[in-house]
Amino acid sequence: MTTAVSSSTGPFLDQAERWTAHNYHPLPVVIASGEGAWVTDVDGRRYLDCLAGYSALNFGHRHPALIAAAHAQLDRITLTSRAFVHDQFGPFCEELAALCGKDLVLPMNTGAEAVETAIKVARKWGYKVKGVPDGQATIVVAADNFHGRTTTIISFSTDPDARADYGPYTPGFRIVPYGDLDALTSAIDDTTVAVLIEPIQGEAGVLVPPPDYLPGVRDVCTVKNVLFIADEVQSGLGRTGSTFASSPVVPDMYVLGKALGGGIVPVSAVAASHDILGVLRPGEHGSTFGGNPLACAVARAVIALLNTGEFQANARTVGAHLHERLNALVGHGLTAVRGRGLWAGIDIDPALMTGRQACEALMARGVLAKDTHGSTLRLAPPLHVTAEDVDVAVDALHAVLKS
Ligand SMILES: Cc1ncc(COP(=O)(O)O)c(C=O)c1O
Q1: Residues known to be catalytic
Q2: Is 234 in the pocket of ligand 1 (CB under 6 A)?
Q3: Who contacts 204 (Cβ-Cβ below 8 Å, separation ≥6)?
Q4: Which EC number(s) does the record attach to this protein (predicted)?
Q5: What average pLDDT does the structure give for the chain?
Q6: pLDDT at position 403
Q7: Ligand 1 pocket test: which of 51, 234, 265, 289 has the largest number of ligand atoms within 8 Å of its C-beta?
Q8: How many angstroms does the Cα of residue 203 sit away from the middle of ligand 1?
């Protein structure tokens, strides 16, 4: 299956192909603008955005409140560094801590940086609070995880594309099957400082663990004095119909990113109690751009949107409609549908087409989505989509499966 490329699109695609490393394999679409859940390409064609920046655009493209916050801050000050305090920093930290129900937050920029922060904090907590012998700390993680692309993080990836050829690898991680509480429990010993998992595994294909898994992880971590770190970079901030996908389970540390920056600036953070984040001392960790005024101003507007509860509510109701419609296609070209809220992992019958072919065919019908492994697609539209938007996406998918 090939996709026709227009005369305006072609030169942009060729230029991108010529001048960048080939670390992505984008669909052949060149986007020029976006509003809400829809984007427009250089030829004026409109597409429903069902990837939403890998969930960085939970509030859609150019949400007016977020754009207004960014504009206002651009006209005042954008960067101070953490060498000085600025007037957006304290309010942002207090408001994010309140959203998370935690004492302290530490802002970074990308999701991977926040995961690295969580790992460092957990190790230091292990040595200074738990009493693990120096240099012996272990962290239990899940197979098929996705936590980012740094050398330490890919050291505990089980995806050969992410990991092979990038060794030597950082030691100190134990990998157990996702969703298997017995395996996780057996992997914990006196050296274990943390369990780091995604409450729902996104890149793996939107894998939802068994219902007793997260409560079980919580209990085991409490009993064994191990930190439960929930990587909510993709699952959090409304995507699943609640602010955090781990809810009602409360982890010891949240790792947040993506949607925290409102699709405008990269903003990530970890949030935890004073006992945990309080282990850091000046000079031990930081980032030039972490917690900058523009990031804090936009993230404060994001938190205000989340505090209305409207996005979580829409993710629940319109998400139920999405799942109902997708489930009706199981046996008619789909072999399985998983997920929660406005987040779905869809397995296409591999005999019909690959995930990539399905995405190209959806694109031709005005819907942008992204494949993950093999014949699996992810649908993760902005959280304010309507049931009619969802119908556009599912009708297009249905047509693609029948073609
Ligand atoms: C669960 C999870 N953690 C961390 C990351 C890394 O975030 P970033 O790409 O901003 O470094 C991602 C990115 O997809 C993710 O899904």
Answers
A1: 146, 231, 258
A2: yes
A3: 144, 145, 146, 178, 372, 373
A4: 2.6.1.13
A5: 97
A6: 85
A7: 234
A8: 9
Output the pLDDT for position 2: 47
Other CB atoms within 10 A of residue 59 CB: 26
pLDDT at 1 over 70: no
Residue 3 contacts residue 365 (beta carbons within 8 Å): no
User: Which residues are 41's β-sheet partners?
Assistant: 31
Q: Residue 401 and residue 73: Cα distance in Å, rounded?
A: 46
Q: Is 147 in the pocket of ligand 1 (CB under 6 A)?
A: yes
Q: Which among 224, 284, 304, 295 is positioned nearest to 261, based on CA atoms? A: 295
Of the pLDDT bands very low, low, confident and very high (cuts 50, 70, 90), residue 370 is very high
Instruction: Give which of 258, 259, 270 is closest to 227, Cα–Cα.
Output: 270
CB-ligand 1 contact for 41 (6 Å cutoff):
no
Report the distance separating Cα 135 and Cα 37, nearest Å: 48
pLDDT at 7: 75
Amino acid 77 reads I
Q: How far apart are the first and last CA of the chain?
A: 11
Residue whose token pair is 């859609």: 60
The residues that bridge with 142 in the sheet, in sequence order, are 176
Sheet containing 38-41, strands listed edge to edge, beginning at the edge strand earlier in sequence: 31-35, 38-41, 46-49, 367-368
Identify the residue whose tokens are 């609640």. 242
Structure-token match 């399985």, residue found: 336
- As a whole number of angstroms, the distance between CA 148 and CA 274 comes to 26
Show the tokens assigned to 212: 């007793």
Q: What is the 3-state secondary structure (H, E, C) of the chain?
A: CCCCCCCCHHHHHHHHHHHCCCCCCCCCCCEEEEEECEEEECCCCEEEECCHHHHCCCCCECCHHHHHHHHHHHCCCCCCCCCCCCCCHHHHHHHHHHHHCCCEEEEECCHHHHHHHHHHHHHHHHHHHHCCCCCCCEEEEECCCCCCCCHHHHHCCCCHHHHCCCCCCCCCEEEECCCCHHHHHHHCCCCEEEEEECCCECCCCCECCCCCHHHHHHHHHHHCCCEEEEECCCCCCCCCCCCCCCCCCCCCEEEECHHHHCCCCCCEEEEECHHHHCCCCCCCCCCCCCCCHHHHHHHHHHHHHHHHCHHHHHHHHHHHHHHHHHHCCECCCEEEEEECCCCEEEEECCCCCCHHHHHHHHHHCCEECEECCCCEEEECCCCCCCHHHHHHHHHHHHHHHHC
**Tokens 């699943």 found at:** 240
